[in-house]
Design a protein that fits this description.
The protein has helices at residues 5-24, 200-213, 225-229, 257-268; strands at residues 3-4, 31-35, 44-47, 56-60, 65-71, 75-80, 84-89, 93-98, 114-117, 122-125, 134-138, 143-146, 148-150, 153-158, 161-166, 172-175, 190-195, 216-217, 222-224, 240-245, 248-253, 274-278, 306-309, 315-322, 325-332. With 335 residues, the protein is α+β, with helices and mostly antiparallel strands.
């Protein structure tokens, strides 16, 4: 069902009032964690702001326990002192426990509440300010996932930071179904997107792999990503593009397909009825086109993404590219 923008903004304004009141009180801890042991000879900075040029509040040793209050594309906010807040880069932490697994998704899920279909050329800005840096230009037909709306701006993930779209440039914002059991085939039960650089052969490969994974999966059905999108060959529509092989960048047919498996994984992570059977990240620093740690490598015998639909209903995956944005939506199939 289409949610009119005016009604949505009224709802969001009420929600933001509640959020502001909550922020004034003590923040709840959502995850327990430690400063990662991967860098055993290096201390980790706690910054005053989400900016490595900001003041360093404290240095933490590997293994130090932390209380995590919030997650962002490249940062987490942590308890500092009794009521203060500091910020740590996500690649410097390991999460050990979700405090309230019933109401809080497992780390590092970043739920998306809305999506938009672009119907006019518009700019994605770096700040909630029309004069700020333009991160991307979107044209009619592009689809983007939205975390929420604040101060008249729709907030979306842009690689390892947030981007913003002036809601006056959106004719409508559509909701993601809040409950899989009561959903139907008109509203997705999860969405996610990722942005990529303008590299025509790689962009072609993203579109080809997206088409292959766009399908209905029955209850109990398993998708093996490599098997679904292969063979990686010119005959199958792929072009030569860059791919990491043994830590070296080489050109292979299908280069870039990892971005499709990664974006699909981010959409599926939001769904408790999906069971991941195999997933491997790209490494400690992960893929730069997504929030830290939110990637799923694929394309070789030992790098693959495999999952199973454990819902008692079919799901439909709808993936596509437009401009420099890859969008994945998952629906409850009711036809």
């Amino acid at each position: 069902m289409k949610l009119k923008l005016t009604a949505l903004l009224l709802l969001v304004s009420l929600l933001l009032g509640s959020v502001s009141a909550a922020l004034a009180a003590d923040k709840d801890v959502i995850y327990h964690g430690i400063i990662t042991l991967r860098y055993e000879n290096s201390s980790t900075s706690v910054y005053k702001e989400m900016d490595k040029e900001s003041k360093v509040l404290k240095y933490l040793a590997p293994g130090a326990k932390i209380e995590i209050l919030g997650i962002y594309p490249d940062w987490v906010s942590i308890r500092y002192g009794t009521k203060g807040v500091g910020y740590v880069l996500r690649n410097r932490i390991d999460v050990t426990e979700t405090v309230d697994p019933v109401n809080v998704p497992p780390y590092p899920v970043m739920p998306q509440s809305y999506y938009a279909v672009i119907d006019r050329t518009l700019e994605v800005k770096a700040e909630k300010n029309a004069d700020s840096e333009t991160l991307e230009i979107l044209t009619p037909g592009a689809r983007v996932a939205l975390e929420g709306v604040e101060d008249g701006w729709a907030r979306l993930i842009y690689k390892r930071q947030y981007g913003y779209i002036d809601t006056r440039n959106l004719s409508a914002i559509y909701p993601v179904a809040s409950n899989e059991l009561t959903a139907d085939s008109t509203a997705p039960i999860s969405v996610f997107h990722s942005f990529f650089k303008d590299d025509p052969p790689r962009n072609n490969n993203l579109a080809v792999a997206s088409a292959f994974i766009s399908k209905v999966m029955q209850p109990g059905e398993v998708m093996n990503f490599n098997d679904t999108v292969s063979p990686f060959s010119a005959a199958n529509g792929y072009q030569l593009a860059g791919v990491l092989v043994d830590e070296e960048l080489k050109k292979n047919y299908g280069g870039g397909s990892c971005q499709v498996s990664s974006t699909l994984w981010d959409a599926l992570m939001q769904l408790p009825g999906i069971t991941v059977l195999l997933r491997k990240p790209h490494g400690d620093n992960a893929a730069s086109y997504l929030p830290h740690g939110m990637d799923a490598s694929s394309g070789t015998d030992n790098l693959n993404f495999i999952f199973r639909n454990d819902y008692d209903f079919p799901i439909r995956i709808d993936a596509s590219t437009h401009d420099l944005c890859l969008f994945v939506a998952v629906y409850k199939e009711t036809k």
